[in-house]
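Example A, followed by Example B.
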Amino acid sequence: MTLPIRGVAHPPPARTGKRANKADLSRSEIASTNLAGKPLLNEHDHGDRVGTVLASWEGRDGSLRIAANVEDAGAIEQVKRGELRGLSLGTSLIVDTDGAVAFRGQDELSICAEGRRPGTWIDNVNGQAVRQVACFSKSMSGARAGRPTQR
């Protein structure tokens, strides 16, 4: 049994282009990232592979979106119950002796209780939207809330 999921693995980069963390991705890195075939882990535990990433793409808002199959029965139940709805990238960095990053590579994607980066959630489970954002500001000028996912 498999459970298809979709969601945001990395939020859109800051408009300034500055990274909050060395492992954060730029627009060009998001556009060129291919996570297809990477393992889907439970909380970055390499001994607990729970599925496979099927595809990744740049979302309309500049985020890195994913489609994956959860294949482990226990993890499937945790996702369905809402216990594991976060997404987190497992990124390897190669740095020089001064700490400058020479390479960022994605080793895996994990489902987790909550991702460290903002907005990194599973938003679709088995074709059903499970996360939405609603904004109630009187003025929408300057607002950057994402639209509810309806895929």
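Example B, a separate protein, is given below in the same form.
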Amino acid sequence: MDVSLTHLQELSKRCKYIDLEIKSYDENKEVVHIIDREADSVLFMRELQEKNSLFLIRVKDNAKVYWDEKQCEIKQKNLKRVKFR
């Protein structure tokens, strides 16, 4: 564990490691990252999506993000299959 990294940076590093390790054993295996609220970050979700990673993240029910300079509320029930841009 690298103490100089933020929690999400460390988590991202570990996800990359897990992806590489699993693919080295069997490139046909799909990895699904299941993460608690520690990863409730749009930036982190975008990063996973850019790598075509599969993930399930429990998020806060009242999360807010900014999109086109407007504050938007995101409800967990609406995040079933969202593409993060």
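On Example B: The CA atoms of residues 37 and 60 lie 7 Å apart.
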